[in-house]
């Protein structure tokens, strides 16, 4: 049973029931346990909020509980996660909506229940601020000629903001762009046509991210997409395009209509880096550094989760199928 639990992400009630049934009655464990290591991923959701934890007695006997990862189920519940963290302590990782943040290292000292809690924290980070920071990270992550990783094209400028105001118009524009890129010819070493497979709109940052594949073919598709985007935006074709650099039309009056930047970082990865930096205190505006207090760390975790929840307002990925 324990081996089965470590191979998947069981819900909290299943983990707790197993611990209660397998360990609580063992006399050889004694009245106090120094360390309980749980090398597994425990799923926590809103359904766990009001259920009594079968392992409460066992957990109370443990001086230290070390949970590897906590997976927040859909629909998420901040209160359910905080309640689980009160029982099991801060996990090493928390994962939600394909993003994860490292809360502590495995050998880090555990917060003390007796240490005083810090003062009030700043309000959760607004969605526009989170996205803007992520976009800056993507724009500063150039694609090298030797990279075989994913390639994206970040589009910004007044032409993009006009399209973002009408999602249907943006989708039709992206469909047309994908068709013209596919018709432009095969990329280096590519068996088929160049392809723009999808896009993400980031309205609060006035940006759109095109997915162009990976490796040399992805870079070629991104270059073609930048040229097509300028033409469709009416910005002309005089601007240059280089990995990690901007491609702007050079002729007035449309000099700043469109900016296209090749990048090697996805929006989800950039958002994860922003959340991690805020948690670690590497960027301003976060919950501050680790406090050493259990209540303080729970307050910091609440801040992280409530900021994370703001990402629900971000539009999802739109797929561009061939032949659309």
Can you describe what's shown?
The protein has 324 residues and is an alpha+beta fold. The chain contains ten helices and ten strands. The strands form two sheets. The protein has a six-stranded antiparallel sheet. Helix 3 (56-60) links the parallel strand 1 and strand 2. Helix 4 runs antiparallel to helix 10 (294-309), helix 5 (127-139) packs across helix 9 and helix 7 crosses helix 8 (215-232). The longest helix is centred in the last third of the chain and has 18 residues, at 215-232. The protein is elongated and about 75 Å long. The model is unreliable at 235-256 (pLDDT under 50).
Throw out a few tags for this protein:
alpha+beta; 6-stranded antiparallel β-sheet; 324 residues; 2 domains; Alpha-Beta Plaits; 4-stranded mixed β-sheet
Brief synopsis:
The protein is an alpha+beta fold and 324 residues long. It folds into two domains: 2-110, no CATH class; 128-268, Alpha-Beta Plaits (2-Layer Sandwich), CATH 3.30.70.
Gyration radius (Cα, Å) is 24 Å
Coarse shape: elongated
DSSP summary: helix tally: 10
Q: What is the mean predicted local confidence, pLDDT?
A: 84
CATH class of the largest domain: Alpha Beta
Let me know the largest β-sheet.
6 strands, antiparallel
- Per DSSP E runs of 2 or more residues, the count of β-strands stands at 10
Strand order of the largest sheet: 8-9-5-7-6-10
Spatial separation of the terminal alpha carbons:
49 Å
Task: Give helix and strand order, one letter per element, not per position.
Answer: HHEHEHEEHEHHEEHEEHHE
Number of domain units: 2
């Amino acid at each position: 049973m324990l081996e089965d639990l470590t191979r998947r992400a069981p819900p909290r009630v299943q983990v707790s029931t197993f611990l209660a049934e397998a360990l609580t009655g063992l006399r050889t464990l004694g009245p106090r346990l120094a360390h309980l290591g749980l090398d597994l991923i425990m799923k926590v959701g809103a359904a766990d909020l009001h259920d009594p934890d079968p392992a409460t007695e066992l957990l109370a006997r443990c001086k230290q509980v070390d949970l590897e990862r906590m997976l927040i189920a859909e629909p998420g519940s901040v209160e359910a996660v905080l309640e689980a963290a009160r029982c099991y302590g801060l996990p090493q990782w928390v994962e939600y909506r394909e993003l994860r943040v490292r809360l502590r290292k495995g050998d880090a000292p555990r917060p003390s229940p007796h240490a005083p809690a810090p003062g009030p924290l700043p309000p959760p980070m607004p969605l526009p601020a989170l996205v803007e920071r992520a976009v800056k990270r993507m724009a500063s992550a150039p694609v090298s000629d030797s990279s075989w990783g994913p390639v994206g094209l970040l589009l910004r400028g007044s032409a993009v903001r006009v399209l973002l105001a009408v999602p249907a118009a943006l989708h039709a524009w992206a469909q047309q762009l994908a068709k013209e890129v596919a018709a432009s010819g095969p990329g280096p070493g590519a068996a088929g046509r160049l392809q723009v497979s999808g896009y993400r709109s980031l309205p609060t940052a006035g940006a759109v991210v095109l997915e162009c594949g990976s490796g040399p073919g992805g870079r070629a598709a991104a270059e073609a997409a930048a040229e097509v985007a300028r033409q469709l935006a009416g910005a002309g074709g005089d601007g240059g395009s280089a990995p990690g650099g901007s491609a702007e039309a050079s002729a007035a009056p449309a000099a700043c209509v469109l900016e296209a930047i090749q990048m090697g970082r996805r929006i989800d990865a950039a958002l994860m880096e922003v959340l991690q930096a805020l948690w670690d205190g590497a960027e301003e505006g976060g919950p501050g550094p680790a406090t050493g207090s259990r209540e303080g760390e729970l307050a910091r975790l609440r801040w992280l989760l409530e900021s994370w929840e703001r990402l629900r307002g971000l539009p999802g990925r739109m797929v561009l199928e061939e032949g659309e």
